[in-house]
Amino acid sequence: MLKTFLNYLFFPGFLFSACIGLFAGWVDRKVTARIQYRVGPPWYQNFIDIVKLSSKEIIIPEGAKLTFLLAPFFGLLSTILAATILGKSLSVNILGFTGDLIVILYLLVIPAIAMIIGASSSQNPLASIGASREIKLVLAYELPFILSIVAVIVKSGGSIQLGRILNHQINLCSNIFSVSGALAFIVALLCIQAKLGFVPFDASEAEQEIMAGTLIEYSGLPLAVFKLTKAILLYTLPIFLIVLFMGNDMSLLFIMGKYLLILVLIILIKNTNPRLRIDQALRFFWGPLTFLAMVALVLAFFGL
Amino acid sequence: MSLKIKALTKSLWVFHAATSPCNNCDIEILDVLTPRHDAERFGITLVGSVRHADVLLVTGVPNYKTKERLKKLYSQVSRPCLVVAIGNCACGRIMFKESYNSPCPVDEVVPVDLYVPGCPPKPEAMIAGIIKLINKVKGKEKK
Description:
heterodimer, A: 304 residues, mainly alpha, B: 143 residues, Rossmann fold, 43% helix
């Protein structure tokens, strides 16, 4: 019991994933700056931002005060739980429990829902526009994301356990090196781009048109918690993709290399694309990406 | 306490409040963020919402309408908040002093921490000003 709690708080859980996530956030800012011929912030910038935000005054708007304050914490707690389960499944001897893949899928939706609830309870018109866009985005990306994961499940013999999926890949070959796996990986990569709220799909936080969108009324500690949630997601989602698609060699060095590869891919997509309108994003996810995921699923059924 | 001040000085998030300027200072402010000067090296970023801001950059001479808006904006920022007056207009109203449409200078509406004169001030002047502001905040803490 105590060990589980410590796992949740320290090693694969909160402290570890937050540090890695904030550092990855710095990698994002630095690479973005280099692409734009700038120098970029020092490596401790994101940590300092969190410290500064948590020491600032918290302003609570009129309206649903309790929901406004609790929403970011629910998002953070569920993200930490997902990070802990994933981190545990990476250590070799532990197989986890049946259905932990499904649990993680549910846990990864909660941050978006927390953001929607927090934004709607702040009673700001711009925040409500952001919330409505976020709802549409969640509806858009969940369908192809789940379809691509179903393709992985089919490939690894109908197992919904992360340890089994990993074992299957260690015994045979990484999922990404088959046709269906590669297609599903492309779909899942674009879906986590939307889950992270990065640029082609950041209509809900569009800084130039609706200020900060869903985050507009947040200040101080709750804002810091939202930033932390984003940081932990930046650690959790690429690791999730690695477990599902590139699970062949799981030594520490290889995991780091694969993580950096996915991170840089995400950052490059972020920096080379303009923002999509919400209807364009919806069309993109429900049209071409869902089609690709279906093709991957059918191919996976035929064992390709 | 010291950690708070240090974190504040290393990550100043800037909100740009334009109280009827001629837009010249605004362009120079954006210049500070472009590759040539790159203020993100010091953790300075432009934010969209006042609630996230640490620094309020005020440009222009407030008129009867923007005066009220500026007051409102200042009351919405989460403390601690610093106010910087950018340009001659915001610093001292220069030739608009006798104008029928300028009721008061910026520092009668909100407490100003730093004045950056110039028409418009160069980006270098703004960066020098920011360093003075940081030193002022650190000095406050010593006393």
